[in-house]
Amino acid sequence: xxxxxxxxxxxxxxxxxxxxxxxxxxxxxxxxxxxxxxxxxxxxxxxxxxxxxxxxxxxxxxxxxxxxxxxxxxxxxxxxxxxxxxxxxxxxxxxxxxxxxxxxxxxxxxxxxxxxxxxxxxxxxxxxxxxxxxxxxxxxxxxxxxxxxxxxxxxxxxxxxxxxxxxxxxxxxxxxxxxxxxxxxxxxxxxxxxxxxxxxxxxxxxxxxxxxxxxxxxxxxxxxxxxxxxxxxxxxxxxxxxxxxxxxxxxxxxxxxxxxxxxxxxxxxxxxxxxxxxxxxxxxxxxxxxxxxxxxxxxxxxxxxxxxxxxxxxxxxxxxxxxxxxxxxxxxxxxxxxxxxxxxxxxxxxxxxxxxxxxxxxxxxxxxxxxxxxxxxxxxxxxxxxxxxxxxxxxxxxxxxxxxxxxxxxxxxxxxxxxxxxx
Length: 423
Prior knowledge:
19 helices
């Protein structure tokens, strides 16, 4: 047996016994390194303060994130098809390279446009990484007839990478107390190692003959878009589910870039920003872990109503109650974040055909990002003119105005649908 670190042994449980299994073990270890280190972002808990330190207003910050979201909308869907046609390894390598370039650009950023360039490269990274890592893992396991182990191994992969990201955020707060830009510099060696690990990956055997036919890529993209359109068109409930999912996603995301200025207003020392953000990860992770318990006790329609009430109720309360520990109200946002993907994916997975399932799920994510892109500049302007607290109240009230009518329609349709009991 090859020697392995205890952490990787726990994560992957790979015991090579043949050339093929040796290759499988090697690639899973490399994927573990790539996935764990590629998002070591020490700056994340203080990045808004970093932007403000460079002179950006809240309007410019929200505009920056709006453009980032639009870039994600344009890149996320075709990136999955790119991975299918041009290879998982190439996609993951380009993703890690794009991330490395983005972080390096951040190191030298001095204003809005240099930050925008960095953000666009990071958007490219997220779009390419999304889906390609799980497809890479599944294909390698399938080549060894171990695809039934995918949920356990991929779950462990996510768990350990989240743990590493959370640890980086904790240290980020302490580093920021010395210098905000130092949190960016600290990321470079980690994302560089992630890039090197990606270059050493090997294409899964059953995907080694990926086509490089650009014309076919364009044709397949058009055909897949048509299939997604008709899948949504003939299922009225699916359409309303996607609309509602977009509302939940965008209004839950809207407050993210206000958290750090809010911490300032509430009197939290910058040293503790990283610890607070890491605690958000923990709450979200455990909410997702135990979603099945909630699902067993409540109807889907009730859970969907709770998502909008928790999202908007927490935002309104954040606006009206500002004190040292009022950040704990944000835990309600994190519960929604933990529930969101599992609850909506569960509905979509059971209503659409497998050949367009991933694409419809992409549309679900893209809808929320697009709505968020429209919403964020308005909120940024409002925060500049009024206050962070008032902006949270606006988010909450507007979210209820948008979300409750859609939920009422969806509730009525679910009540008359014989398939609704299945989920």
